[in-house]
Amino acid sequence: MTTSEKPKNTTLSIILPAFNEGEHIYANILRICETLAGENFELIVVDDGSADNTFSEAQRAQADGHPVLSVQQESNQGKGAALFQGFRSASGQRIAFLDADLEISPNYLFELNHVMDEEGADVVAGVKDMSENQFPWLRRMMSGLYKRSVAFLFGLSITDTQTGIKLFKREVLEATVPRLKVSRFAYDIELLVAASRFGYRIVEYPVKLSYSRTGNLGRMNTSNISGAFWDTLHIYSRASFWRWLEPSFGMRIWMLLFVIGIFLFGVGFGKLLTPVILHGSVKKVFHIIALQFLPTNFRDWLLLIGGFVLLFLASIQLNKKLLEAFLRRDQGDDLAGIFRK
Fold it and tell me: What are the pLDDT digits (tens) for 304-317?
């Protein structure tokens, strides 16, 4: 990694990940600097292993006296990795993410900053309206499907995790970035899930895009879609209750006994209320499982009482294990069960 000289401490750090943006990056840097003229800010351009002159153009903007810090990753590691690398070089108390193509106007940085102050938010995430006609129908459909999937899996409070402009208080990124694993397709989700698990307040703000890409999916392709899918599942696994609980072998046995207890109790209760007539292979299996070789009254009460005893004992053991898990206030570098210290 190559880094140019770092500017002095600033109030706002803007991280601009760039990959093969050499044709436009200098003009876009100037546009950002003109927009924020008079503000105490730094612009950190992270070249994510571009094959063109993106890095040299960023250095040219810095040499011309603009508050730019140029960072270069030797190989393409993904947008998330570029953003997180930029954060390591940032000095601002507030950190903004902005896409290098400037499909989202840098003027929104003022609005997100205002919302953060007014709402007492720790994170302000820009959200785009995909219903606008400027977006191809296939892109709108895929985006809508992905949004609903993310909402279903993670229950985040915002409607869109993928828009390229976000504003964070520094403490949010200091607490979350060291835990993140995904660097390419779903890094937004992982970051927002981590911030949410810490209890930070996330607010959304509507933004408009100057969409100019061609094709039904824009810059998305089959590889991006499949990569986002697998990354999202990976994040879900790392942020799951099961991962946080870390059940031991003994606890898994008690979980199994709890399920068996429910089954036996239900069978016994059902048999006492309503005799069930089974046929075929199911009847043979049930003949053993439901103890049908025993006298009817004795069997049904045995199932009912035995199931209740298993439920009672398993509930006590699971309650103890859950309380022990809740006492673990922090679990290293994982997403699940993370708390403020």
Answer: 788 888 888 888 88
